[in-house]
Amino acid sequence: MPTSDDGVEEINEHSFEKVKQKLKDRSKKVRETKEKTKKIISEQAEKIAKQAEEHEKFINKVTYLCGVLGFGGFCFLLGARPQDVPYVYCLFYVIFVPLRWIYYRYKKWHYYLLDFCYYANTIFLVTLLMYPRNEKLFMVCFSFAEGPLAWAIIVWRCSLVFNSIDKITSVLIHLLPGLVFFTIRWWNPITFAAMHPEGTARRVSWPYVENKSYLWTWLFVVPLIAYTLWQILYFLIVNVLRRQRFLRDPEVMTSYRELSKKAQKANNIWWRLSGILGDQNRMLMYILLQALFTVATMALTVPIFLSYELHVVFQILKVSAAVWNGGSFVLDVMPRQVIQKEKKKTDMNPLETQLNESSPLKSPVQNSPTGGCPGTPDSPSVENSQMGGYLDTPKMSG
């Protein structure tokens, strides 16, 4: 005879199974919603990219106009209302970084958004919006902005090209943070009012730091710890969690893949240095070289932080490098790209003619006794049909 305890146990077991089933159903629903959302975003990104390709010349002209006007407007704002520059930066970040993600996802470049510059820019955004008067956070951000990000403009040749949204965005991601923290430190009227008592002419910056150990701690040691944390996370995501994804699809790009590809092609110093420990350890050497670059550039932020004159010279150097690289790109690289594009179009024309001639709607063979059957010279060959992969635009990555 079943006891009351058995009944209770049976009810509990039934309730547990019910809850378990509910959780399974909910989990399934969440997965389906996630897949649907991903599919919609992918389709929209592909649609936008295709439309952009169709109207490339017009978009380039509009981009050039907006780029030049925007640059001029920013220069005016920098002189007239430097205290508003941080808000311009925040607006730029929340608009252009999501747009870049959409475009990069379409191109299978979205893992670039795991790079240190985006990690640092996210910290800048949080600091400016939530902790604008926190001196320690300001110094960490200053080290990131005027250290690795600023020197990347010079070392990695970021180019200010006004007719390219992608290149303008890349330059601003590396250039704007330094200008933001420059204005906060030296040109902010609110800071001046707080730091300049009436009757004194001495220029005092914010934050005002006299203790050298405090300076090195927050401009070098703490930023280096934050960088190391990013490097560990990056390695885990790219080399452990998403490793199979990269092995399955060689078109998916990361910074390491792109730099390795370019360095190998050019056979330059970076390729030779990264191969010191052998081909199997190139990733390790890349991490070590990047770490050395970060340590060196962060150490240089200390004298820049202490000297207004040196900081002004550094701003001029960064802008000059971006403009110079942009000029080199426009005069040296773009003409070659145009020639290659025209050559590609010329190579495609005979193929299109052949496909049109072989089409049953346009080919005169359709009225002939053979009827344009497979195997005749007028039917498209297997070789031509395989060109579909070349003609199609890249698909979205998963």
TrEMBL record:
Alphabetized UniProt keyword annotations: Acyltransferase, Lipid biosynthesis, Lipid metabolism, Membrane, Phospholipid biosynthesis, Phospholipid metabolism, Transferase, Transmembrane, Transmembrane helix
Signal peptide (from-to): none
Positions of the UniProt region annotated as Disordered: 342-398
One GO location term (cellular component): membrane
Membrane topology reported for the UniProt record: Multi-pass membrane protein
Superkingdom in the source lineage: Eukaryota
Coiled coil: none
Cited InterPro entries: GPCAT
GO terms for MF: acyltransferase activity
GO terms under biological process: phosphatidylcholine biosynthetic process
Location in or out of the cell: Membrane
Membrane-spanning parts: 62-80, 86-104, 111-131, 137-156, 168-187, 215-238, 283-306
Protein family per UniProt: Belongs to the GPC1 family.
Protein name (Swiss-Prot/TrEMBL): Glycerophosphocholine acyltransferase 1
Organism: Opuntia streptacantha (Prickly pear cactus)
Lineage: Eukaryota, Viridiplantae, Streptophyta, Embryophyta, Tracheophyta
